[in-house]
Amino acid sequence: MIFTYQPQGVCSRHFTIQLEEGVIRSVEVTGGCDGNLKGICSLLRGMPAGEAIARMRGIRCGHKSTSCPDQLAMALLAAQAQAQTPQSA
Questions:
Q1: DSSP 14-80
Q2: I want to staple 11 with a disulfide (CB 3.0 to 4.6 A). Which of 32, 45, 53, 83 is the partner?
Q3: In the chain, what is the greatest distance between 2 CA atoms, to the nearest angstrom?
Q4: Closest Cα partner for 20 from 40, 2, 38?
């Protein structure tokens, strides 16, 4: 499943996440701190989504109430919810 997400309150503008049976296959980020986000995306590859959410949820960036990792956790939560929603015929 490929899931797209528009983060809020951070420098990143767009996430594209590929999940397969609850495991992160790839993450692409548009905008934000390029090197840091490339590193995060590389570390997430092959990780169960639940583990990634637990590690990143609640991380803050400076004075902001969120961060790119926190927004990635929110995106993964939304992707999991969409995967569990029965598709209409």
A1: EEEEEEETTEEEEEEEEES-HHHHHHHHHHHTT-BHHHHHHHHTT---TTSS--HHHHHHHHHHHHH
A2: 32
A3: 45
A4: 2
Q: Residue 22 corresponds to which amino acid?
A: G
Amino acid at 19: L
- Structure-token match 């999940």, residue found: 19
Q: pTM of the entire structure?
A: 0.91
Amino acid sitting at position 50: G
Q: What is the pLDDT along the chain (89 residues), one digit of tens a residue?
A: 999 999 999 999 999 999 999 999 999 999 999 999 999 999 999 999 999 999 999 999 999 999 999 999 999 999 999 888 776 54
> Angle at which helices 34-44 and 68-84 pack, to 10 degrees?
40
